[in-house]
Amino acid sequence: MTPPPARRRRATAMGGTPAHNLPRRGAVRRAQAITTYGVGSLIAVDHESFVVSGLDGAENSWRPDEAPRIHERRLARLLDVSHFRLPPASDDDSRDGMRVRRFPLMHSCPECTELQRHRDFNPPEGRSVCGTCEVDLVPSRFVVACEAGHLGEFPYWQWVHRSTERGATAAGQCGGGLRLRSSGRTSSLRSIIVSCTCEKAPEVSMEGSFRRNALKDLGLTCRGTRPWLGASAPAEECGRPLRTLQRGSSTVWQPVLKSALSIPPWSDGRSDPLAEHWEKLRKHKDRAAVEGYLDAIFDEKWPVSLDEVMTLLDAEREEDPDGSENRSFDHRYRALRNKEYERLRAGNDESDHSHDEQFVCENPSGDTGELEPLGITGPMLVKKLREVRALKAFTRLADPDSSTESHEMPLSASSMRWLPAMEVHGEGVFLRLDETRLDAWQKKHATAVARAERMRSAHQRVLEERAGEQHQAVLSPASPRMVLLHTLAHVLINEWSLEAGYPAAALRERLYADDDMAGVLIYTATSDSAGSLGGLVAQGEPALLGRTLRSAVRRAEWCSSDPLCMETGLSSTGGTNMAACHACVMLPETSCEHNNILLDRALLVGTPEEPDLGFFADVLHP
Predict the structure, then answer these.
(1) Is the N or C terminus of the chain more exposed, i.e. has fewer CB atoms within 10 Å?
(2) How far apart are CA 407 and CA 254, in angstroms?
């Protein structure tokens, strides 16, 4: 359990100089290196723009000697790596920090209006100014990307010369120079004027450049460029359609994050010294063979006893039996969640473990019978938890209504045995729905099943459209119990943000919804090793939880956008919600596992036509 040595890290601009001579360009929070400014993303520093470098190569983004290791065996096994590394963080200017490369390369000068590559302005070393006018250069506002994750410069030459004959002028060999200016009439794309001094083509505006087929009509397709990997990674064969994007758009880069809770027997950190050896240890089936292997790799005292090693191996084989590599990634990820669900149900009393234990889950002291009329069972107080969030890959042009990522772009050109990650510590409340009452509710209310099926069908269409013909679309997770649990988690988070003083963005949900699971963990966690101070755990005591739940359900009964919100039917971009909007149950993006889709408060409180449809109808109409 490696504690973070610092909370911030530096960003360093790439150049042809040795690492210790690279200029400092700015700083971001450590967690942002996973969620906002990860590998392949664009970052604006003052008036300059850069792309965060990849993990491998001589000019990599995260130098291993500056990025402390962290371990979470269950997640490492799922992602096929041996360990994870924290973002490099140091306030010492002699250390390198994270590397970035200048992108986009096309810049314009607001004084002379020239539009060309940055180096062609002859700027002084270490500055981004026009060598003639001595004013700050402006990076291109526009870039192009494809769904496979490639990123490139906007084709200004082709855009200006699109009305001329294809050939030399289209390739930028007309002999003229590009100019970019603003007419100043409006702030729209129509006011951004691009021209060429060759006078073979009229000046044009940027209006229409964001049309889906704008670049396709010019005969342009993706060339597979990956500027974050530098010259060490040649362009890939691609040929997919290109889309024009604003440089600061959120669709330019979206992280693919995977996380796991540290649960026994892995949660005390004693297995960390063996992180590099688990794959070989798994090949030894009997106790004597394991003992022989440990004797061979450790000359002196073993960091872990033989009994503990055998316990860990048994736990791993139970969760990930031999031959599981033939199962899909989604199937193995569900198996990881199943084990967390079992441990949350079983608990892990603090008095039975050492201070190093990172997972403490206990029964509340109050009478849980108070929650039975609400259909809630098995509440647990998670007094300590540790979560590792790893950056697996990233996507571009991702559909905001999809809860599953496709066309993932790896963080390096070659295979790596580690991934960037953050570890957070905190606390939470776990609760389950009564299975008997849940089954009876589903059988009684065909309308609830039909509403969930409409969302599932809409979501499945979104996934299939996004996957395309060359990829197999994953199945939508939508089901009546999943939508019910998801919406319940959202209304509880909103209620706690009002009554317990927690900002909604500080709380997160973790859903356990499957044929044999019906639970939700609501927790708060920070990168500080101290976690929080027990405020959320206190909300899990049965008496207080019952009052909070009743208040949350009553609040969800009415939305300020009703009757529109309740009666519209399928909503959101892809029709993946029913009765849900930002005025009632939606949360900040950081709090929701499914990007604010697959929500329907009608399954909680019913509809005006069917008031008993809701799972908690008895709370509203006793």
Answers:
(1) C
(2) 12
pLDDT surpassing 90 at residue 142: yes
The secondary structure element, H or E, covering residue 341 is: helix 329-346
193/195 Cα distance (integer angstroms): 7
The SS3 assignment for 152 reads strand
For residue 595, give Cα distances in angstroms to 241, 330, 407, 573, 599.
26, 18, 18, 12, 10
Q: Check whether 121 has a pLDDT greater than 60.
A: yes
Identify the weakest region by mean pLDDT among 2-11, 222-231, 316-325, 366-375. 2-11
Q: What is the CA radius of gyration of the chain?
A: 27
Asked if residue 332 lies in contact with residue 320, where contact means CB atoms within 8 angstroms, the answer is yes
Residue 340: what are its φ and ψ, rounded to 5°? -65, -40
Phi-psi region of 148 (alpha: psi -120 to 50; beta: other; left: phi over 0): alpha
Q: Note the pLDDT tens digit of each residue in 24-43.
A: 677 888 888 888 899 999 99
pLDDT of 90 strictly over 70: no
CA distance 24 to 12: 5
Task: Give tens-digit pLDDT for 357-392.
Answer: 889 999 999 888 889 999 999 999 999 999 999 999
Q: Is it true that the peptide bond before 255 is cis, omega within 30 degrees of 0?
A: no
How far, in Å, CA of 339 to CA of 40, rounded? 33
Tens-place pLDDT, residues 609-621: 999 999 999 887 7
For 244-304, what is the HEC assignment?
EEECCCHHHCEEEEEEEECCCCCCCCCCHHHHHHHHHHHCCCCHHHHHHHHHHHCCCCCCC
> Which of 183-197, 388-402, 446-460 has the least mean pLDDT?
388-402
Residue 16: predicted pLDDT: 33
Burial of 344 (0-12, 13-18, 19+ CB in 10 A): buried
Query: 430: which strand partners?
Result: 380, 521
Q: Taking the model in full, what pTM does it have?
A: 0.85
- The torsion angles phi and psi of 323, rounded to 5 degrees, stand at 90, 0
Q: Which is it for strands 142-145 and 151-153: parallel, antiparallel or unpaired? A: antiparallel
Residue 556 buriedness (CB in 10 A; 0-12 / 13-18 / 19+): buried
Residue whose C-alpha is closest to residue 480's, from 507, 423, 509, 440: 440
Q: How far apart are the C-alpha atoms of 152 and 413, rounded to whole Å?
A: 17
Residues 6+ apart with CB under 8 A from 246: 141, 142, 252
CA dist 355 and 373 (Å) reads 37
